[in-house]
């Protein structure tokens, strides 16, 4: 048990150092030498845990995807996302607060997520997360006897639904001082009630 705990602590030090160096120097400039220096560990310790930098990066990506998947599975299984976004009284923003639980993981790990998700060379993880959102939102709609509007082809309606949520979350992650998960949940809730023409208010007489 102590050995496993020590391994986990060592890996966490390496991951924390990796995130710090990515923020400072860019993901492509991280080397084993500057990584172990930042983590205050030896090269030998690094190689005990990882084959190379890519192996560490792949583990971080796998953890990110697994944790986001877990959050979505929990919310989809109890129908809370469907009820909050598609069913509840739109005048009461408080009903959307439990959706913020899905966003809490992102907020609490935002440094890592910025490095992994916003990296210009890492489109694969973005595509996987977007596909995950689409899968579970559409599954939630169907499980609750809902369907996409008949006013648009289904694939277009689905993309509008997913792209709206995805774009808001990515914009939120990019912000230097991001709002709380609860506030972003309210923004997402409000966005589904507004048509594009309602986003601009003409104040001229």
Automatic annotation (TrEMBL):
Start and end residues of each HTH tetR-type domain: 8-68
Molecular-function GO terms, alphabetical: DNA binding
InterPro entries linked to this entry: Homeodomain-like_sf, HTH-type_Tx_Regulator, HTH_TetR, TetR_C_Firmicutes
One of the Pfam families matching this protein, by short name: TetR_N
DNA-binding region: 31-50
Keywords: DNA-binding
Protein name in UniProt: TetR/AcrR family transcriptional regulator
Organism: Periweissella fabalis
């Amino acid at each position: 048990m102590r050995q496993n705990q020590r391994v986990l602590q060592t890996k966490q030090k390496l991951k924390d150092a990796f995130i710090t160096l990515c923020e400072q120097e860019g993901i492509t400039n991280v080397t084993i030498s500057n990584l172990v220096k930042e983590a205050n560990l030896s090269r030998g310790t690094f190689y005990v845990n990882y084959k190379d930098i890519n192996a560490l990066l792949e583990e971080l990506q796998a953890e990110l995807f697994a944790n986001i998947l877990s959050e979505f599975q929990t919310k989809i299984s109890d129908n809370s996302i469907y009820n909050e976004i598609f069913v509840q009284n739109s005048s009461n923003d408080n009903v959307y607060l439990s959706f913020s639980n899905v966003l809490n993981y992102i907020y609490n790990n935002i440094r890592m997520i910025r490095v992994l998700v916003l990296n210009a060379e890492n489109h694969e993880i973005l595509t996987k997360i977007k596909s995950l959102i689409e899968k579970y939102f559409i599954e939630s709609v169907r499980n609750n006897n809902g369907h996409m509007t008949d006013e648009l082809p289904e694939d277009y309606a689905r993309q509008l639904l997913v792209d709206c949520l995805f774009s808001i979350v990515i914009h939120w992650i990019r912000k230097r001082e991001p709002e709380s998960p609860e506030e972003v949940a309210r923004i997402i809730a409000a966005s589904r009630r507004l048509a594009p023409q309602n986003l601009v208010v003409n104040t001229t007489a």
